[in-house]
Write a structure and sequence with these properties.
Layout lengths: L18 H8 L9 H11 L12 H6 L5 H15 L3 H22 L5 H7 L4 E6 L2 E6 L8 E5 L7 E13 L1 H4 L5 E2 L17 E2 L4 E13 L5 H11 L6 H31 L4 H15 L4 H18 L2 E3 L4 H7 L2 E4 L1 H5 L5 E6 L4 E4 L10 E3 L2 E3 L5 H12 L4 E4 L5 E4 L2 H12 L4 H7 L2 E5 L7 E7 L5 E7 L1 H6 L1 E4 L7 H13 L3 E10 L15 E10 L4 H12 L3 E5 L4 H11 L7 E2 H6 L2 H10 L2 E3 L3 H13 L4 E5 L5 H6 L2 E5 L5 H6 L2 E3 L4 H42 L7 H18 L24 H27 L4 H23 L16 H19 L1 H7 L6 H27 L6
Parallel strand pairs: 9-22, 9-25, 19-21, 22-24, 23-24, 25-26, 26-27
Antiparallel strand pairs: 1-2, 1-3, 3-7, 4-5, 4-6, 4-7, 8-27, 10-11, 10-21, 11-12, 12-13, 14-15, 16-17, 17-18, 18-20, 20-21
């Protein structure tokens, strides 16, 4: 037997190749399988059936790269300057901040590289094959193209297979395609352009056999398999920078250039024009540099993000990368998978069509919670005889089992459709144990694709026998003579109801019954004749979660577009989209996406909310198309088919309970309750986090600006420096540790989810924020210089004047804390003393530290300070109060201009 010719570079579309041609191209006898020699040759040619390991960065390199950030460079520069001043304590504090920041990033991001490992874990570990005419169990990694593989219920498919024999085979492909219901397989070819979910003659690696048996030929292994292509997509995707990291990098570059420019101008002016001594002007420039650098900002940002992470974890959202917290607040589009995300991935009966009326069924999933409604009025199920008869058939003509496992809820063993029928019966008040005891099953005809129904024979304890039937409605209708009321069957009317349900994306089943002679003990195909009474039709769907509908509406109110991208059928996707409130007039299929060029796809991606039959490549292209339009994209999903798009999106959101490991490891955020509604809460918290980062920035920049302004005014005005470099470091350290930290605990601004999301291109320093920084900086310079000159004018020493100036700066920052807690709202608009107790505790801590700075002898010796009298404190506190009112006046002007956010 010769080596096969198929090239891994250009594999054929095996789903469109006939069985005979497939056997010929792979050069294999399906009864004998491959020989040992042939296996060795093919293994050498194609390699093992495993995914290749990618080269990874070591932990030390990953740790060092945490320092590769312009803001960290600025922070290190501050540490070097501080160390050069022999202020070893503050230099140690700065070094500690840098190292802690790096450790947080290292720990949070270190697990991201497990995405490929999770995909590998989905592959089967063993396979049953035919080789040399014998049936063998081998390691799945030893499979080669041309191997004959045997499949049975419960087995994980070990490689991509072209089926050549099957018996009632159904395969659960939800993790690969997103389709809720196990797919019926056949051996017939399909068109070459068929989507993955429509390739009925293929069984793909990583999917699971739900029912039946089959034999197939291995046509692709390892990286050439469908799951291998997804692994390649995951490895090729580059992780994008978050809006926060982009803004902070831009800000760090800007502030670095500003500090260098201001320092150079100050040095040249002081040395050449003022003819200051070289040491004096050097110390002044060092003081200016230390004053201008917001050295506490990286630590504060990390703390704000960490607090947001903790709050989200309490709300069932686990953050895997710290900056992802803030990214959620910037999201403009959420692309969501359908199955398991917007829905529960649990089939539910949503409609019962009886002879004289139609009932809507409430409640989703397998939990027997909900009821029956006619024209929006609840009905008592036990009083509806027709419903009870249909529910009995749904319960008894059924092989599934539902078990309640405490807090983890209801778990299905068996087919999802039959699980939905069991839940329907429970909602109707029937008990499975009681029903099975009262009317035990005597025999059955299992479901097979040839006859498309399942039938069961039952007897009650009085000896009466009856036959229950369920299956495809067109097949069951052929076997029915009358409806439940005894009237002749109006086939056209029932078909019209079937078509209406199908247009709503529902899968329709028919249920019927007939009486049997008491002595019947066996059920034969000959018994299945046109003798049945049609009990009714049921419409099943994997419906949207009720909380997901509310969450989509909340996101839309917040200016966030929600788009559904699924591997399911277009009709089903459109029906679910309509229920969710999406624009579902036109569902674009993966086949249509493949025909569009990038520019056309960008237009379609913006205009369309529902995408169906989408492959992993289609999802990637959609995310790229939206990002090319300037959108900030969140992608949610739970299947391995979602992993590449989860990784390439600005923030990937995976399901924690039912999601695959591949999806969780590729994501930035994992929802532990698998609930789309949790995303809306996470978006809200993301906006709060960004607001608090901006408040921290809005607090630190004017205080740094005021300190730098004081030094600049002294140099250019030919005056004595009001503060020393060491005193400035003290101010920055204590206010960053206390006041700026308090802002991390601020609650949400009013209407945080009523405003449109920030554009990704919006700079960190907006014009309004820049004006506030300049305005408050000038106020800080004015009151600090005022106190400094006043102390000198009344005969105080330079040390006394500097002590007063430092305390004036600190008091100015303290009162400004209560200004900045609200962007433009009045400081008294809500509980100034109650809604953030941390601010009060930190203020008290700062007052204690500042009293030590002023009166404790060790601090007086270290920072050259002297004690202040009551008059000095009265002036300082009075000017602090005036400064507070001046900022409140500016906020009132902004409110009058309808500016409510920075």
């Amino acid at each position: 037997m010769s080596t096969p010719t198929p090239s891994p570079d250009a594999p054929p579309k095996w789903h469109s190749v006939a069985i005979e041609a497939t056997l010929q191209r792979l050069d294999v006898d399906p009864k004998v399988g491959l020989s040992s020699d042939e296996v060795s040759q093919r293994l050498a040619k194609y390699g093992p059936n495993s995914l290749p390991q990618s080269k990874r960065r070591g932990p030390w390199l990953r740790f060092v790269l945490q320092f590769h950030n312009p803001l960290i460079y600025v922070l290190l520069a501050a540490g070097v300057v501080t160390f050069g001043l022999k202020d070893y304590i503050d230099a140690g504090v700065i070094a500690g901040v840098v190292i802690i920041n790096a450790l947080i990033g290292f720990i949070q991001e270190g697990k991201a590289e497990k995405a490929l490992d999770a995909v590998r874990a989905m592959l089967a570990s063993h396979a049953i094959v035919v080789r040399d005419g014998e049936q063998l169990e081998i390691e799945a990694t030893e499979l080669v193209p041309g191997d004959v593989v045997l499949l049975e219920s419960g087995v994980k498919v070990p490689a991509d297979l072209r089926l050549f024999h099957e018996k009632n085979l159904r395969v659960n492909e939800a993790a690969l395609t997103g389709e809720s219901v196990p797919v019926e397989k056949s051996t017939e070819t399909v068109t070459g352009s068929a989507a993955i979910g429509d390739r009925s003659c293929m069984a793909y690696s990583g999917t699971v056999v739900s029912y039946g048996q089959a034999r197939g030929l291995v046509v692709a292994t390892g990286s050439q398999s469908e799951i291998g292509r997804i692994s390649t997509l995951v490895s090729e995707v580059q992780t994008l920078a978050t809006p926060l990291t982009r803004r902070l990098e831009q800000f760090a570059r800007q502030i670095t250039l500003f500090i260098l420019g201001a320092g150079l101008v100050t040095f040249l002016y002081g040395f050449y024009l003022r003819e200051m001594a070289l040491l004096d002007i050097f110390l002044a420039v060092v003081g200016l540099t230390v004053a201008a650098i917001p050295e506490g900002l990286p630590a504060i940002v990390s703390i704000v993000l960490a607090i947001g992470t903790r709050i989200m974890a309490r709300n069932k959202a686990i953050i895997r990368r710290l900056p992802a917290v803030e990214t959620l607040g910037s999201v403009t589009v959420i692309c969501s998978d359908k199955t398991g995300t917007l829905t529960k991935n649990e089939m539910s009966v949503v409609q019962v069509m009886l002879g004289g009326h139609t009932l809507r069924v409430s409640g989703t999933g397998y939990a027997p919670e909900g009821g029956f409604h006619q024209d929006d009025n609840a009905i008592e199920a036990s009083q509806d005889e027709a419903l009870q008869a249909l529910a009995q058939c749904a319960l008894l003509c059924n092989n599934a089992q539902l078990k309640h496992k405490g807090s983890s809820g209801w778990h299905l063993s068996g087919d999802p459709t039959e699980g939905a029928l069991l839940t329907l019966a429970r909602k109707a008040g029937l008990d499975p144990v009681e029903a099975a005891t009262a009317t035990p099953r005597t025999d059955e005809i299992p479901f097979e694709s040839e006859h498309r129904f399942m039938a069961t024979l039952h007897h009650d304890h009085a000896g009466h026998g009856f036959l229950l039937l369920k299956g495809a409605p067109e097949r069951v209708l052929e076997l029915c003579r009358q409806d439940a009321s005894g009237q002749p069957l109006d086939v056209a009317a029932w078909e019209a109801r079937m078509d209406a349900a199908a247009r709503d994306g529902q899968r329709v089943l028919a249920l019927a019954r007939c009486d049997m002679p008491a002595n019947t003990t066996a059920l034969l195909m000959a018994d299945i004749t046109q003798r049945f009474t049609l009990l009714g039709l049921v419409g099943l769907i994997d419906p949207p979660r009720e909380e997901a509908i509310a969450a989509v509406a909340e996101c839309q109110r917040a200016g966030i577009r929600v788009k559904m991208i699924t591997g399911d059928h277009a009709v089903t996707a459109a029906a679910i989209g309509r229920q969710l409130g999406l624009n579902a007039e036109r569902a674009v299929t993966g086949e249509a996406i493949a025909k569009l060029d990038d520019l056309a796809l960008q237009r379609v991606a913006l205009e369309t909310d529902v995408f169906a039959r989408a492959s992993p490549e289609h999802k990637l292209r959609l995310v790229d198309a939206l990002q090319a339009q300037g959108e900030l994209v969140a992608m949610t999903g739970d299947g391995v088919n979602d992993a590449p798009a989860l990784k390439t999106s600005d923030i990937g959101v995976a399901m924690g309970k039912k999601g695959t490991d591949a999806a969780r490891e590729a994501a930035d955020l994992v929802l532990t309750d698998d609930n789309f509604a949790t995303i809306a809460q996470a978006v809200r918290e993301g906006r709060v986090v960004f607001d608090n980062i901006k408040k921290s920035l809005l607090f630190m920049l004017p205080t740094n600006g005021g300190e730098a302004g004081v030094i600049l005014l002294a140099v250019f005005g030919g005056l004595a420096l009001p503060v020393t470099a060491g005193q400035i470091l003290w101010i920055n350290m204590v206010t960053a540790v206390t006041l700026a930290l308090a802002l991390a605990f601020e609650p949400a601004e009013p209407g945080v989810m009523a405003r449109a999301p920030r554009r990704p291109s919006e700079p960190l320093i907006t014009p309004v924020l820049g004006f506030r920084v300049a305005y408050v900086s000038l106020l800080m310079v004015a009151v600090t210089f005022g106190v400094f000159e006043w102390e000198l004018a009344r005969g105080g020493s330079l040390e006394l004047a500097r002590t007063a100036a430092v305390n004036m700066l600190v008091v100015g920052e303290l009162v400004y804390l209560f200004n900045v807690r609200h962007f433009t709202s009045s400081a008294f608009a809500r509980g100034i003393l109650t809604d953030n107790p941390v601010a009060l505790w930190m203020s008290a801590l700062l007052i204690g530290l500042q009293l030590l700075f002023t009166y404790a002898p060790p601090f007086q010796h270290l920072f050259q300070t002297v004690a202040l009298d009551a008059v000095s404190w009265a002036v300082i506190l009075g000017l602090g109060g005036l400064k507070f009112l001046a900022v409140e006046a500016e906020k009132a002007v902004l409110r009058g201009m309808k500016i409510t956010n920075f």
